[in-house]
Amino acid sequence: MLRLAVIVAVAAFSCGHDDQRYDSNERIPFFVDNVVPFNNPQESYRYYSLKFCRTDPIHHKSQTLGEVLQGSEKVYSGYNLRFKMDIMPAKELCRIEMSVDDIRSFRHAIKNQYHFTWYFDEIPIRGLIGDMDHNGHVYLYTQHDFQFRSNGDRVIDAQVTTPAAQRVRLPEDSDSLSVIFHYSAVWKDTEVSFEDRAANNAGELYEEEIEIQWFSIVNSFVLVVLLTGFLAFIVMRILKKDYQRYATLEDPEEDQDETGWKLLHADVFRFPKFRTLFASIIGTGVQLLLIFLVMLTLAVIGVFYQYGRGTMYAAIIVVYSLTAVIAGYTSASFFKKIEGGNWVHNVLTTVTLFALPVFLVWACLNTVAIFYGSTVALPFGTIVALFALYFLVTFPLTLAGAIAGKNHAGGLDAPCRTKLAPREIPSAPWFRGPIVHVAVAGFLPFSAIYVELYYVFISLWGHQLFTPYGILYLVFVILLMVTACITVSLTYLQLSMENHEWWWLSLISGGATSFFIFAYCFYFLYSESKMSGFMQISHYFGYMLLICYALFLMLGTVGFLCSLVFVMQIYRSIRAD
Predict the structure, then answer these.
(1) Distance (Å, whole) CA 530 – CA 512
(2) How far apart are CA 189 and CA 185, in angstroms?
(3) Considering only CA atoms, which of 437, 428, 575 is closest in space to residue 502?
(4) 57: cis peptide before it, omega within 30°?
(5) Residue ranges of E strands in 190-259
(6) Which of 71, 434, 476, 534 is deepest in the core (most CB within 10 A)?
(7) How far apart are the C-alpha atoms of 478 and 509, rounded to whole Å?
(8) Which residues have a Cβ under 8 Å from the Cβ of 188 and sit 6 or more positions away?
(9) How far apart are CA 383 and CA 69, in angstroms?
């Protein structure tokens, strides 16, 4: 079982080259990958879906799990590029005889700003296929000039330019066209080390963006500190007055005339309805919180490859599988604390609570990708491997954690006894109802991360990489702080209104930020992006729905657990005879 997880982990993190050192005049493998519309980054297609120069036969590079999940399909190209060997003047690559359909495909790709992705020593090279002039004429680039930089026996940088003078017009009414492709290469030395080549390239691309984010993050952090301090100060002052008032109540009859949260001591620890689902949410939420923390920590210390997200996708799957034991243990132990009965049902709910929605959404989106012929559709072998990982690692670890949690967990250790008959909940005005309660609980954390959310979205649904992971880590901590603070404050307000059904409401309130983030998806789509087409839109909303669902489970768990600690503490501090 664990051996399978190790195999998948090795496949996820393995690199295409072992040493990436080359001798002079040694041929360096050059891979062509895919073509992608600029505005639809998930709508990637095979490079040879367009009639480019190709080798015969086509030889595919062996793919890692991360590359497959990223939609990569690398193929050995016919470019003869050698280490520190210039190619001047431009060398002919091949001659292509285009048919009507070939011309039509190229025209469609150029009008939609398709760009190619190549890989030279694992460095991605991207460029447009062609362009259009102001008269609407479509041109195909037929020459690519490479500029390489090296330090010693290593490649440091790779770039490509397409001279406008070397392009061919693609007439709309042409029946055939003969096109000759050329390429050239120039090598230069640099003092940038191999270890710093990723940071050097990222710094050039994201220097201005990082400055903007640091300014916004400092602003948000100050507002969060002020908000948290203000809410804590108000709640503590009110609690202090409540303690003083309840401490002076010596007469039981006078105690009955009082109102407030103290009167709920016999009902506040009454267990919630749907205990199986509730405990499963807590277990899955703790697991997702751990996954977020692990992934952000790995990103901050620089584990993931700078130029692609595939390794990160694979790492999420591996970490999810290995942390299943935490979900099972937490869910089963909490299920026993709230006196749940059928623990087998609890285990099955825990192991499918997040995985089943992910599978259903992925199955629909993968079907769409297959219909469009996109490379993001997973091959059959990868699907079988992922199912094996789930049934041979995730499920057994969840079961093992559940058995340990059931056998070692004790009672809830509530400071107050619960009566058999529940107390009647008084009616409350609409502005103190659950809808307003949840709306306020979700809006305040969302407002704290609103500015940074834009950068996360353009990274997820654009062609830019979010390299300053430290900022993202700080934003995540801010989100947890505000969620915990506002949920505890609203839970106290609910108890003050003598409403003892706070369990589910605190969980939903904690996860309410995900509702606002999903609503932000519509704003980003229509105001900040140019995504279009059924495939791209379906992938956008499908995967954002899963992300928001994961955030709901995680933040809801954080909100409830903080509220539980708060409620346990205040009722331990009063006389509850």
Answers:
(1) 28
(2) 14
(3) 437
(4) yes
(5) none
(6) 71
(7) 17
(8) 147, 148, 149, 150
(9) 10
Which letter does DSSP use for residue 136 in this model? Answer: -
CA 465 – CA 521 distance, rounded (Å)? 19
Q: Which residue has the tokens 């606002």?
A: 516
DSSP secondary structure string for all residues of 118-164: EEETTEEEEEESEEE-TT--EEEE-EEEEEEEEETTEEEEEEEE--T
Q: Write down the pTM of the prediction.
A: 0.88
Q: What pLDDT does residue 213 have? A: 56
C-beta of residue 82 within 8 angstroms of C-beta of residue 142: no
Strand 123-128 relative to strand 114-120, pairing: antiparallel
Give residue 313's identity as a one-letter amino acid code.
Answer: Y
How does residue 208 score in pLDDT terms, banded at 50, 70 and 90? very low
Spatial neighbors of 504 by CB under 8 A, at least 6 apart, are 272, 273, 278
- List the 138-141 sheet strands across, edge first: 130-132, 138-141, 167-169
The structure tokens listed for 509 are: 């309130």
Residues 100, 103, 109, 112, CA torsion sign: negative
Please name the residues in contact with 25: beta carbons below 8 A apart, sequence gap of 6 or more.
Answer: 82, 83, 84, 85
| Among the ranges given (130-139, 463-472, 481-490), the one the predictor scored with the smallest mean pLDDT | 463-472
The order of strands in the sheet holding 143-151 is 87-98, 177-189, 143-151, 154-161
**Quick one: tokens of 332?**
């089963």
Angle at which helix 503-510 crosses helix 275-300, to 10 degrees, equals 30
Q: 535 in helix, strand or coil?
A: helix
